[in-house]
Specification:
alpha/beta, PyrdxlP-dep_Trfase_major, transaminase activity, Aspartate Aminotransferase, domain 1, single chain, Aspartate Aminotransferase, domain 2, 2 domains, 7-stranded mixed sheet, 4-stranded antiparallel sheet, PyrdxlP-dep_Trfase_small
Length: about 400
């Protein structure tokens, strides 16, 4: 029998739920950034109090600072099922993709092809398109304009002998459909094409097994996965060697610095391990002990997804059946993340969002940096969509509050 999420235990790890100014406010803007868990806040506070100095120097406090940063890399790697030296912590995923694009621009040659989608967040599209100025050829794997889905048959027709890189998303931050990453990466590998996968909209619903997915590079944002405002890049060893050091030449011996040319945010890197402390606590509260980080990761991911999908089914059913709402993406909760984008009839997404906010619903409206996707689907990016996104700490009562608020705002 599958474990059932203990919501009281979960919410006890998030100070936001004890914050008086947020009482009565239901948080449905998690796709823009989740609440931070207590262990992250504690580690950040500890770092600033005890070790706010240059790490890795000779003083014991400096050594402690460096050890905390190293531990974050190790803990993240264990949950993602990769080596610690393959984990890079940069300022944001947008900045990380910029660094990656510059790196690829140095090793690819005129006429080489990069495939991008029009389903992604612009951070995982624009930096690659900019390489056209260097003579690279950009091909677009286009969504189905009716559904926003990506079809594998369309991708297969884009590969050629000059294709070097495929860049796509684990799931869209608007459509929310979970793409078959392992299958896509396998197709790319068979065509001798490297892969960059944007997992930012997926990782808050459970850290993936990157090794099993087969991606050469996998990206996620910790601030959307209960942590500090950092972007995580997993760059597999062979790909890192191909791209080479993008930092100061004298940092060549330090792999963690290769793809973070601005240098690490010491305190936030050190605090990142708090996300894994929380996941460990979540695991140990619900399951028998295990020393396998991968078993923990799989169990926690399933626990979170099961809790979300039960609530997601209710919200999707309401939206899908309401005559004044258009649901973007699949109506099957098992095929998508807990992000629900909506276009209302008779009012703009912004007008509907305002009515919801006035009823204690924290949400947003706009294009959410998915302008190309909205244009492909015939949706005006100037108004965009209303987006309602939640994660495992959301309560059934908050779904009730949201549905009641929608009914009133649409009456």
């Amino acid at each position: 029998m599958a474990a059932k999420l203990d919501l009281a235990f979960v919410r006890s790890h998030f100070p936001a739920f004890k914050e008086p100014s947020l009482f009565g406010q239901a948080f449905f803007d998690n796709a823009g950034g989740s609440y931070a868990c207590q262990s992250v806040i504690d580690h950040l506070d500890q770092y600033y109090r005890e070790t706010k100095l240059q790490p890795y120097h000779l003083h014991p406090a400096s050594q402690k600072a460096g050890a905390q940063m190293d531990l974050s890399h190790e803990r993240l790697a264990s949950y993602l099922n990769v080596d610690a030296s393959e984990v890079h912590l940069g300022p944001s995923s947008s900045q990380n993709t910029y660094v990656l694009a510059q790196a690829f621009g140095k090793v690819l040659v005129v006429g080489d092809e990069i495939i991008v989608t029009n389903q992604d967040h612009e951070a995982n599209i624009g930096v690659w398109r900019a390489l056209e100025k260097k003579g690279l050829v950009i091909k677009e794997w286009q969504v189905d304009p009716a559904t926003g889905s990506l079809h594998l048959d369309d991708l297969k027709g884009l590969f050629s002998k000059r294709t070097k890189l495929l860049v796509f998303t684990h799931c869209s931050n608007v459509v929310a459909e979970i793409n078959p990453v392992a299958e896509i990466c396998q197709l790319a590998r068979a065509a001798n094409v490297a892969t960059v996968v944007d997992g930012v909209s997926y990782a808050g619903h459970g850290l993936p097994d990157v090794n099993a997915l087969g991606a050469d590079i996998y990206l996620l944002s910790l601030y959307k996965a209960y942590g500090p405002h950092l972007g995580v890049m997993v760059i597999r060893h062979a790909m890192a060697e191909t791209l080479g050091n993008q930092s100061h030449y004298f940092n060549n011996a330090y792999r963690h610095k290769w793809f973070v040319p601005a240098g690490p945010d010491h305190a936030q890197v050190a605090a990142s391990r708090g996300v894994l402390d929380y996941f460990d606590a979540l695991h140990d509260h619900h399951f028998a002990p295990t020393t396998s980080a991968q078993e923990k990761s799989q169990r926690v991911r399933r626990l979170m997804l099961d809790a979300e999908q039960a609530l997601l089914s209710r919200l999707i059913e309401f939206v899908d059946q309401h005559p004044k709402l258009r649901l973007i993406g699949p109506n099957d909760a098992t095929k998508r993340a807990a992000t629900v984008s909506i276009i209302p009839q008779g009012q703009t997404p912004q007008e509907l969002a305002k009515k919801l906010v006035e009823q204690g619903i924290i949400c947003g409206a706009g294009h959410f940096y998915a302008v190309r996707l909205l244009e492909a689907m015939g949706i005006d990016p100037n108004t965009g969509v209303l987006r309602l996104s939640f994660v495992h700490y959301t309560q059934a009562e908050e779904i009730d509050q949201l549905i009641a608020a929608l009914e009133k705002a649409l009456a």
